[in-house]
UniProtKB/TrEMBL annotation:
UniProt cross-references to SUPFAM superfamilies, sorted A to Z: P-loop containing nucleoside triphosphate hydrolases
Keyword ATP-binding: yes
Gene3D superfamilies: abc- transporter (atp binding component) like domain, P-loop containing nucleotide triphosphate hydrolases
Classification via CDD domains: ABC_KpsT_Wzt, Wzt_C-like
UniProt KW keywords: ATP-binding, Nucleotide-binding, Transport
Record domain ABC transporter: where: 23-246
Protein name stated in the entry: ABC transporter ATP-binding protein
InterPro entries: AAA+_ATPase, ABC_transporter-like_ATP-bd, ABC_transporter-like_CS, ABC_transpr_TagH-like, Bact_Polysacc_Export_ATP-bd, P-loop_NTPase, Wzt_C
Family, per entry: Belongs to the ABC transporter superfamily.
Length: 448
């Protein structure tokens, strides 16, 4: 059983806001001016624990209290109420430049920051070359950091916290700044660090939270909205964001559906054809994809104006498949019914691995540029995407389906289902990367 390395108990932070700066000054000397302030609770009664070896993601919109929470845990901000119990060394990467002296060089700031984290001079000097190599900022290491770009700041700050032997790392949106190569390098380090250390990770990228974190905490207006398994919390947060953007709320969805006439019987999709009967591959490296049955009662969100009736793969003869083989040409078929007239209809899908990483996806926006899709009320439709199945590593995958109206950038979600289809991959030859693609031909020619 893992012991808690961090305990947060009923943590709250209140700021006192004054209409005029002089009222704040006078309030220190004259009690009657204290009544001229307004209370703003940036955090309100937040409690959770972080176990050794656990990673918790913290999500929420700007102003929800994420940074305030991390600053209190880091010790740079005092709480109004509540307690923080910490065991071990903590290293934090908060706002850019925090803890850096702009007039010091990068090398001098490494010595300063590492000393702040409690390392002796001998320990710092023994790690200095590794820190500089990890930062990869070249000759700028001996230039004042006031001349650094935001990306160089992140490189240097992350390199320091990666080498101070911390028990807990706090990462606050810093990886959103900088180039993709360094971000990938940091993610690889975090994946390795979480084997023994604990991480608090703040990001607006729900895919990164789902992939990296064991649990997630959703903050809203300083309050705990949800704490639980990372995938579950991230999906609930995404659903909340969509519901707030749309004119029809999730509560109105039930009223809309109840006013409509009963749906006609759904066609029978249970007579599947096993692709292995005609698509034989004797190699033990063949990737077999077992398609799980469609669940018509799975969780979804949206206005409810479009109903998802089924999703399946079909072969080139139009037969629904219960088994697919990597490299096979298939069509992904989405069966739906429109309960209301829909203009500028969009249907799309995303294929994700079990950690929530999006591997690939598509929608009809580019295909429908010359003629936007219109749906009639009460009419059934079938949308099809023709594709060649990539080669995937062993594991479980999900297909998310979204049906909306509008444009790529601005649209109203009518039906979004996170786990519209689930399939399991066994066998295969993918050992590097997330997936492989079918290659039609290879040759090698000697040049004269």
């Amino acid at each position: 059983m893992h012991l808690s390395i961090l305990e947060i108990d009923k943590l709250s932070k209140c700021y006192f806001l004054f209409d005029k700066p002089q009222h704040r000054l006078l309030s220190y000397f004259f009690p009657q001016y204290q009544n001229k302030c307004r209370e703003f609770w940036a955090l309100n009664d937040v409690s959770f624990s972080l176990k050794k070896g656990e990673t918790i993601g913290i999500i929420g919109r700007n102003g929800s209290g994420k940074s305030t929470l991390l600053q209190i845990i880091s010790g740079t901000l005092s709480p109004t109420a509540g307690n923080v119990q910490l065991q071990g060394r903590i290293a934090a990467l908060l706002e850019l430049g925090a803890g850096f002296n702009p007039e010091f060089t990068g090398r001098e700031n490494i010595l300063l920051n590492a000393a702040i984290y409690g390392l002796s001079r001998e320990e710092i000097l023994s790690k200095l070359d590794d820190i500089i190599a990890f930062a990869s900022i070249g000759e700028f290491i001996d230039q004042p950091v006031q001349h650094y770009s935001s990306g160089m700041f992140v490189r240097l700050a992350f390199a320091v916290i990666a080498h101070v032997d911390a028990d807990i790392l706090i990462i606050d949106e810093a990886l959103a700044v900088g180039d993709a190569l360094f971000a990938q390098k940091c993610m690889r380090f975090l994946e390795e660090f979480k084997k023994n250390g604990s991480i608090l990770f703040v990001s607006h990228d729900s895919g990164a939270v789902t992939r990296l974190c064991d649990r997630a905490l959703w903050l809203e207006n300083g309050n705990m909205r949800m704490l639980g398994e990372a995938k579950e919390v991230s999906e609930a947060y995404l659903e909340h964001l969509y519901s707030e953007k749309q004119s029809v709320s999730l509560s109105e969805r039930a009223e809309l559906t109840s006013d409509e006439p009963a749906l006609a019987p759904v066609p029978d999709y249970t007579h599947w054809y096993d692709a292995r009967e005609s698509y034989l591959q004797a190699s033990p490296l063949r990737a077999d994809y077992r398609i799980h049955a469609f669940d018509p009662d799975a969780k979804e969100f949206g206005t409810g104006k479009v109903v998802l009736e089924n999703i399946c793969f079909r072969d080139e003869s139009g037969r629904p498949l219960s088994w697919v083989v990597g490299g096979m040409k298939v069509s992904l078929e989405v069966a739906l019914q429109s309960l209301s007239p829909i203009n500028d209809f969009i249907v799309g899908f995303l294929v994700k691995n079990r950690l929530g990483q999006v591997l690939f996806g598509e929608n009809n926006c580019l295909f429908s540029l010359d003629g936007p899709v219109q749906l009639l009320a009460g009419q059934r439709y079938v949308a099809r995407f023709a594709l060649t199945m990539p080669y995937l590593a062993e594991g479980e995958y999900v297909v998310s389906v979204g049906m909306a109206s509008g444009s790529q950038g601005e649209h109203v979600q009518h039906c979004w289902r996170h786990d519209a289809m689930v399939f399991t991959v066994t066998g295969g030859h993918v050992v590097h990367g997330l997936m492989g693609i079918p290659v039609g031909h290879f040759d090698i020619t000697a040049l004269e």
